[in-house]
């Protein structure tokens, strides 16, 4: 587990690049928020977690496989990861944050971007801002 990175993972970098290319600006890994979200958009009160399917047990995903050795250790580890995630989501929601989770498999398949952009666009309209980032102009 020494080689498992907590920040700047490949899926995280892909999501960050895509959001930035669409004109969104954000902060990274805010330690003042529970769960230390991967992406924080304070002006929108939105946090984005980019979760690995294996570590965070994405239901129905083929990447959420179970190791064959030390099964008791791994089940305990996975349960504690899920419980920690739920505590973070509850705390953030209680403080008025919108939470969006992007899964590693969605990034690999390229299916994460449109739902994420849709949520962000809807938020822009609901909080009275323009429906797109300021410098994003398409013809």
From TrEMBL:
<comment type="function">
    <text>May nick specific sequences that contain T:G mispairs resulting from m5C-deamination.</text>
</comment>
<keyword id="KW-0227">DNA damage</keyword>
<dbReference type="InterPro" id="IPR011335">
    <property type="entry name" value="Restrct_endonuc-II-like"/>
</dbReference>
<protein>
    <recommendedName>
        <fullName>Very short patch repair endonuclease</fullName>
        <ecNumber>3.1.-.-</ecNumber>
    </recommendedName>
</protein>
<dbReference type="Pfam" id="PF03852">
    <property type="entry name" value="Vsr"/>
</dbReference>
<dbReference type="GO" id="GO:0004519">
    <property type="term" value="F:endonuclease activity"/>
</dbReference>
<keyword id="KW-0234">DNA repair</keyword>
<comment type="similarity">
    <text>Belongs to the vsr family.</text>
</comment>
<keyword id="KW-0378">Hydrolase</keyword>
<dbReference type="InterPro" id="IPR004603">
    <property type="entry name" value="DNA_mismatch_endonuc_vsr"/>
</dbReference>
<keyword id="KW-0540">Nuclease</keyword>
<keyword id="KW-0255">Endonuclease</keyword>
